[in-house]
Amino acid sequence: MYVETSVKAPTPTVTPTTPAKPTTSTKPVGNKGTTTTTTTTKKEAPKTGDTMNVALYASLLLVSALATVVLTTKKRITE
């Protein structure tokens, strides 16, 4: 017995993003009143929603490494 089925994937929705616009600033240089224009762009880290505490995992790694050293040293001494 053969039953024909079809599944249609939903169409993805794309949200356009706009890049950060450069800012310009004018600063007077010297006594003659000349100006210099500089252009900078603001770079921000992407917002991922990740709030994991890295210090916790780093300390767990340190504790496990120390425990491994202690246990292997103890095993060598008793043999």
Secondary structure layout:
Layout: E1 23-29, E2 34-40, H1 54-78
Antiparallel strand pairs: 1-2
Descriptive overview:
β1 (23-29) and β2 form a beta hairpin. This protein has a domain at 54-79. With 79 residues, the protein is an alpha+beta fold. The chain has one helix at residues 54-78, and strands at residues 23-29, 34-40.
Order of helices and strands: EEH
Helix content: 25-40%
Order of strands across the main sheet: 1-2
Shape: flat
β-strand percent reads: 15-25%
Uncertain segments are: none
Distance between the termini: 68 Å
Task: Write a compact overview of the structure shown.
By secondary structure, this protein is an alpha+beta fold. 32% of the residues lie in helices and 18% in strands. Strand 1 and strand 2 (34-40) form a beta hairpin.
Descriptive terms for the model:
18% strand, single chain, 32% helix, 79 residues, two-stranded antiparallel ribbon
